[in-house]
Automatic annotation (TrEMBL):
Keyword Signal listed: yes
Protein name: M23 family metallopeptidase
Signal peptide per UniProt: 1-22
Superkingdom per UniProt: Bacteria
Pfam family, any one: Peptidase_M23
Keywords: Signal
Annotated organism of origin: Nocardioides bruguierae
InterPro entries: Cell_wall_metabolism_enzyme (IPR050570), Dup_hybrid_motif (IPR011055), M23ase_b-sheet_dom (IPR016047)
GO molecular function, one term: metalloendopeptidase activity
Classification via Gene3D superfamilies: Glucose Permease (Domain IIA) (2.70.70.10)
Span of domain M23ase beta-sheet core: 209-297
């Protein structure tokens, strides 16, 4: 293990909080270590940093990205491992048996990062305490390995610095819409894919079509239309494996997102409009890849009177200058 010392933070860490902090770091050579990483490892590091920047509780703290990347370096060498000790999986070697998520979810780097971050922000003093202490509080490693995360801090800092700047500049983020309070559920340039078929009738629906469909290839990103709290309804059902809802408040405006092949958020998470929720799929009562999107003004049920035409609602909201 590389020898570690307790020292003042180098300039790279100043960007995290605006001031130098005293944290545990290691006498390693980040430049040479960076050059030894392959495309898979760099891609996973980038995903972790971008997900951290898009996760509301950590969106202003690249320190969280450093902790997450260092943890993944220790747990998996930044590789999305399909197996590990006992039932450990993925970048962070999280265990389904401990409630981190299903095996399928934990092998999705964005999901795995989000659930790691959700646990991280509950750790007292996570942003100022030594990295290895905080990572250990989240991961609960075997006795004697609590200090193992420290050796990766310099390399993780270099990776976070590289990709956080790119993310903050907007150079690699998917284009959603402009600024405001309402976002499109799909990339803004694909808004034409809205079929405007709310209220339709047909053999695929027991009563009437309760949302509008955005017909786009599977894997297309899906975004939160408004700010709110994530509610996940488990399937299998007409919506697929999971129905994602973004609820602004109990009894308040709620938007639904169905037929997702991948879900990148966790129940109870607070998201901002424009946050990536997952990917379009062809699951549940579907005849092809598409997003089924609904708007419920008062958090009602699928056929309740508060279910309104989502296409018209989006148009009205955007016309009021609320677009995000």
């Amino acid at each position: 293990m590389v020898g570690c010392v307790y020292m003042a933070v180098a300039p790279l860490l100043v960007l995290m909080t605006g001031a130098a902090l005293a944290v545990e770091t290691c006498s390693s050579n980040p430049a040479s270590e960076l050059s030894s990483l392959d495309d898979e490892q760099l891609g996973n590091a980038r995903t972790i940093v971008e997900t951290t920047a898009a996760f509301p509780p950590t969106s202003s703290s690249s320190r969280a990205a450093v902790i997450a990347v260092a943890t993944a370096l220790q747990e998996s060498s930044l590789r999305n491992l399909p197996s590990g000790d006992r039932d450990s999986l993925g970048l962070f070697q999280q265990r389904p048996s401990q409630g981190w998520g299903s095996p399928e979810q934990l092998l999705r780097p964005r999901f795995a990062t989000r659930v790691f971050l959700a646990a991280l922000v509950t750790v007292p003093g996570w942003s100022v305490r030594p990295l290895t202490e905080v990572a250990s509080d989240v991961q609960r490693p075997a006795e004697g390995l609590e200090g193992a995360y420290a050796r990766w801090e310099s390399l993780a800092t270099a990776l976070a610095s590289r990709y956080w700047r790119t993310t903050a500049a907007g150079g690699c983020q998917e284009s959603v819409v402009a600024s405001g309070q309402v976002a499109y559920p799909v990339p803004r340039g694909l808004a034409w894919s809205d079929r405007h078929n709310w209220g339709g009738a047909g053999e695929h629906w027991s009563a009437w079509h309760t949302g509008t469909d955005f017909s786009l290839p599977c894997g297309t990103p899906v975004y939160a239309v408004t700010d709110g709290e994530i509610v996940l309804e488990p399937g299998p059902d007409w919506f697929g494996d999971v129905l994602v809802q973004v609820r602004q408040a109990p009894g308040g405006l709620t938007t639904w997102y169905a037929h997702l092949q991948q879900v990148d958020v966790v129940a109870g998470e607070r998201v901002a409009a424009g946050t990536r929720l997952g990917e379009i799929g062809d699951v549940g009562n579907a005849t092809g890849c598409h997003l089924h999107f609904e708007v419920h003004l008062r958090d009602g049920g699928i056929y309740d009177a508060d279910n309104v035409d989502p296409s018209a609602w989006l148009a009205t909201s955007l016309a009021r200058g609320q677009e995000r």
